[in-house]
Amino acid sequence: MDQRDLQQRIELEKGVRRFREVFQGKVSLELVALLMKRYHSNFSLITKYLILMVTDDTGGLDADDRKEIDNDPVVKAVIKKLQDEENKAKTKVGLGAGNWRAASDCQEMCETLLVTLAILTHTECRYGHTHTRTH
Is the per-residue pLDDT at 126 higher than 60? Predict the structure, then answer.
């Protein structure tokens, strides 16, 4: 890969990231990468295209668009890199959600244990209730 290809890849990647950030990832990665390349990162033109495309029944990428992506190694490389990053981020979020659930379960268990301890010791629990043990 020569210097020009590397520079094109970097500029395309920056543009795609920025555009998807503005639209909160609602536009497909492939479509944004293709349009960025096709319209030379002209955000205004790409936005107009997307607005007009929304009223079009076809929507998304057609066979010609897919062919254009397949024939452009720069676009393909950027799409692959960003898809890999998104997949890694989704995996991390999944693990984070599991950890959050475990922490929430742990907190509930601790609160239950505190109430149980208060019952056993005839003291006031952290909720201000006095618990007495009944036989």
Answer: no
The encoded tokens of residue 26 equal 């609602």
Number of neighbours of residue 118 by Cβ within 10 angstroms: 19
**In this predicted structure, what is the pLDDT of residue 5?**
87
- With beta carbons less than 8 A apart as the criterion, state whether 29 and 53 touch: no
Give whole-number Cα distances, 129 to 111, 113, 115, 133, 135, in Å. Answer: 13, 14, 9, 13, 19
The pair of three-digit structure tokens given for residue 27, joined into one six-digit string: 């536009």
Reported residue count of the chain is 135
pLDDT tens digits, one per residue of 64-97: 888 999 999 999 999 999 999 988 887 776 555 5
Q: For residue 35, which amino acid is it? A: L
Which pair of tokens denotes residue 76? Answer: 């393909």
Gap between the Cα atoms of 12 and 23, Å rounded = 16
Q: Helical H runs in the chain?
A: 3-22, 29-38, 43-55, 63-71, 73-121
Integer CA distances (angstroms), 58 to 50, 52, 54, 114, in order: 12, 11, 9, 60
